[in-house]
Amino acid sequence: MPDPMRIRAQAAGSKINVRVLMSHEMESGQRKDVNGAPIPAWHIQEVSASHNGAEVLSAEWGPGVSKNPYLQFTVKNGKAGDKITVTWKDNKGESRTDEATVS
Questions:
Q1: Cβ within 8 Å of residue 29, ≥6 positions away
Q2: In whole angstroms, how far apart are CA 44 and each of 41, 65, 76?
Q3: The domain containing residue 56 runs over which residues?
Q4: DSSP secondary structure code for residue 52 in this structure
């Protein structure tokens, strides 16, 4: 199972500032190993986030995103104690979901 995401969600008035650090190798499929064989593509394809169960972000990513990607976004109409859930799925079928409570 992939390593957990580091999610920080902080209330600022009626907005929530969310910062996410995802642990993923993100191989593009363009590099070669020491023997010259291509390294297969392995990257996050879908990212979604929800605020108290309602989806607030949906994104499609590709091989151009860097290793261990960082994502930052703002959610309106939030407060301390709310739940932020982030999910990603990669091209090999692996997925990860983590949740944070807004502080």
A1: 38, 39, 40, 41, 42, 63
A2: 10, 8, 26
A3: 6-31+39-101
A4: T
pLDDT at 3: 85
Cite the beta strand spans of the chain per DSSP E.
Answer: 6-12, 15-21, 44-51, 54-60, 70-75, 83-90, 95-101
Q: Please give the tally of structural domains in the chain.
A: 1
1 located within any domain: no
CATH number of the domain that 51 lies in?
2.60.40.10
Give the C-alpha separation, 42 to 2, whole Å: 13
Q: What is the mean pLDDT of each run of 10 residues along the chain (103 residues)?
A: 88 96 93 94 97 97 94 96 97 96 96
